[in-house]
Amino acid sequence: RKLNKKLETQNMTLHESFSIIDEIKEKINSIPGPKGATLTTKLNELSNKNKGLEILRKINAVLSGENVQLEDVYQDPKIISCFKYAPTTSVDVERSFSVFKNMLTDKRHSFTEEKLEMHMIIHFNSK
Fold this sequence. Notes:
It is a single chain. This protein is an all-alpha fold. 65% of the residues lie in helices and 0% in strands. The protein contains seven helices and no strands. The chain has helices at 2-6, 14-29, 33-49, 51-63, 77-81, 90-103, 113-125. The model has no long low-confidence stretch (mean pLDDT 81).
């Protein structure tokens, strides 16, 4: 249960998130008997269905200095560097939606891309 809560931590690097995910996988894989086998199978099925997680895992490998082949979209180093703090759970994503909802209201008619980027940087660095 403690590892699950760790994944909810804010501002975790992709590397830290995958370390926790891998630790959870190891613990599940070490559960003996039929229940352990069922959980391992379910975990593998979920992991195989989640293509985004696999892409993040490859990006994490690149950020860690490994030579991994990525899709063309992710070849740009500027794009890769943006993934250093990418969320791996829906908790951070939901927090982001709340922030964006407050930033992108109907009252904002001239919010340029540059101003949005600055606003996001200020918001996330203020925590």
